[in-house]
Amino acid sequence: MSGCSRRQFIAGGAIAALGGTLALAGCAPMSHEEAAAKKKDEAAAGKDAAKATTATGEGMGKHGKFTVEVAMNDGAIDRITVLDSRETPGMGDVAMEKMTKAIVDNQTLAVDTISGATLTSMAFLTAVGSALDTLGESSEDWKNREPASWTSDVKLPEETDVVVIGAGGAGFAAAITAANEGKNVVLMDKMGVYGGDTALSGGEMAVPGNWIQVTQGVKDSPEELVSDMLVGGDNKGDPELVAIIANGALDSANWLTYEGGISWKHDLMQFGGHNIKRSIIPITHSGSEMTTKLTNRAEGIDNLVLIDNTQATELVVDDKGTVTGVKVVNPMTGEEAEVKCKAVVLTTGGFGSNVDMRKKYNPDMDEKILSTDSVAAQGDGIVMAEKVGADTIDMEYIQTYPVCDPETGALLYVGDVRLENYGILVNKEGDRFVQELDRRDVISNGIKNQTDGVAFLLFNQKAADATGLVETHADEYENSESRGVIVKADTLDEVAKAQGVDAEELKKTVEKWNKYCADGKDPDFGYSAEMNTIEDGPYYLMACKPAVHYTMGGLHITPEAEVLDKNGKPIAALYAAGEVAGHKMGTHRLGSSSTTDIYTFGRIAGKNAANYAK
Fold this sequence. Notes:
By secondary structure, this protein is an alpha+beta fold. A 6-stranded mixed β-sheet has the order 11-7-6-15-24-23, with helices on one face. Strands 17, 18, 19, 20 and 21 form a 5-stranded antiparallel β-sheet that branches. It has a 3-stranded antiparallel β-sheet with strand order 2-3-4. α10 (about 220-230) crosses α11 (about 240-260). The two termini are about 30 Å apart. Mean pLDDT is about 90; it is low at about 1-30 and about 40-50.
């Protein structure tokens, strides 16, 4: 079911703005004979029946340019068709569907952007406005028409068994699991689209003993993942929680495959800190592969209500401290409500986009550092739980991802050539300064210490072809290239000049690197995997900076996903899973381990909440 099929739009006086003629015509339709006579009279007066006209317009979305076709008939928009788009599935496309209905139903461009897909929404309005201008309309006039307000036609129940707050990967896992246990479930999200940070991620998932490892003869075990995660987090994580994640990894991957219908690439990735290549990859190399299919799965479950634009503001507790409900508000309309329930699961994510909260716990993570996270990552669940006595832990541990867009903070997935053992990181002086497969914090800190706090990832066409990442993420590449974040040229001199990097030193660095590859040893930084030369062009040079990517701290939970109070006792009927829950990753999270965490603990939280709700 599409997002639009479950939505309605309200436009105040917008219908009246279309004129009284339409209203009269709707009340008293003409007969066939009357219509024929009118057409004959119009023709006699030299008035041909209005003809539909079409035009196209372009917008630059989050993932490159897209084109829309606008069809008009008798001065009204009759149809808007997206001709080509690579916006995030389940997010950008849903936003355009919703805005299309709003515009067509209400004949206005004064339409609110869809929260969670703001860049796409703005680009969509630009594209439609451009098409209108081509058709001889004034897009400015259309923007000044009666505004259209949007609301969901999904009815929020006054009472249910289990409420899950936050529709990212952990939320879907918890809600679907609880519903499969026979409980009535409400899964709510404050944004206008579903998916959260899961949809924005690459979706890679650390799974020891997975089917690809078996096929390739790679020996691995949950115990080895536990060791890597604990060491990677400087042994600050809870070994019991880490063991649950590692031991539940394969079951969670199978659950995604058979319950969620997720498809996987026949390949593995190895992130820094993992001593074994164990991370499986969704077929689209995107977490939206998961969240779009889980959305479809959730919408098909009769005892599960999935609703967006519904922000939880307060947990309701009784005089014994048991959670008995959730107070909510619609961010679009301000309408408030309360849902009574028997158990609540918090899956609201971290606080990476909340600068004030970041600075509160770690002053170094200030506004100078951008974030890869969804704008929804504000720490809502942590704040709500604290107000009913919940304990927090490890809040000062905030991770940055090293290879991010220096202008927006977004993850640069083309940069994953680094993780497939291609490319080197250099500074403005043209020198390497770090081991490219080291821990994220080590690389991030290394970049911060370079001139202008920026680094450049150098790779060549051989690497692009071998990994397929430029093609797979062509949308990102096009957007990055248009802004000069990545440049491509036939020579090292050309790419260096374009990025302001010392060309002569860069050539010396590449020559040295190629020699190290031939020797099979990196005496400078101890490169930890197969080394690939950078010989013939064309060459790519991509600018990057660290951005806040994950908050390791959060609510203190038990192995059963129960939220603990400050005395170490579970708060009755309150569970948490995913990034909102802390003490699993220690000081630093290994890449792809969070995906394993959200689906493993999400399912645990959903099952235990359902059991409590009996």
